Amino acid sequence: MAGKDGGPPVKLITQNRKARHNYEIEDTLEAGLVLVGTEVKSCREGKANVTDAYAIVKDGEAWLLGCHISPYSHGNRENHDPERPRKLLLKRSEIELLHKRVSQEGRTLVPLRLYFKQGMVKAELAIARGKNLHDKRQSTAKRDAERQMQQALGRRR
User: Fold this and answer.
1) What is the dihedral of CA 56, 8, 51, 18, to 10 degrees?
2) Comparing 146 with 135, which gets the higher pLDDT?
3) 124 contacts 113 by C-beta, under 8 angstroms
4) Which of 57, 75, 100, 112 has fewest C-beta within 10 Å?
């Protein structure tokens, strides 16, 4: 089964549903992750969580922090640490661009989802700005108004 754009198939591992509610998404990009074997096996079982995760740029490298990948159920004493920082695989130009954009006030790097693409674990990162409470209320009211309009149009037909 091909992806939406006719590209390679994508198998979703996990997604951060609260990100679009808590943040205003400005831009997104795809990054690979450096994982050990038991982490990949655990991801294949869907045992990952990116709800509280974020990414930073430090010493010219991008890191994913706060991502929880549960220990592999059939792993031995060499199993991985579930909360360890994971390196993100990006081009140098992309890392420099991220560092420049994130250093602006109020912006952060938030992972939106983890997925398999051609057998590799990828993370979709978003450059985001945190929403205030009134922004969240405003977006909720807008979504409710659009839903009511669609329902009214459906009733007219």
Assistant:
1) 110
2) 146
3) yes
4) 100
- Under 8 Å between Cβ of 48 and 68: yes
Q: How far apart are CA 142 and CA 119, in angstroms?
A: 39
Note the pLDDT of residue 22. Answer: 84
4, pLDDT greater than 70: no
Closest to 65 (Cα-Cα) out of 8, 125, 21, 116 = 125
* Nearest-angstrom CA–CA distance, 48 and 69: 4
Q: Are 2 and 118 in contact (CB under 8 A)?
A: no
- d(CA 133, CA 50) in angstroms, rounded, equals 22
7: pLDDT strictly greater than 70: no
Domains and CATH numbers, the chain: 10-131 (2.40.280.10)
Quick one: 69 exposed, middle or buried, by C-beta within 10 A (0-12, 13-18, 19+)? buried
List, in sequence order, every beta strand (DSSP E) within 16-69. 23-33, 48-49, 54-58, 61-65, 68-69
Helix (H) or strand (E) holding 144: helix 133-156
Q: Which residues contact 64 (CB under 8 A, 6 or more apart)?
A: 33, 53, 54, 55, 85, 86, 87, 88, 111, 123
Per-residue pLDDT reduced to its tens digit, 28-39 = 999 999 988 888
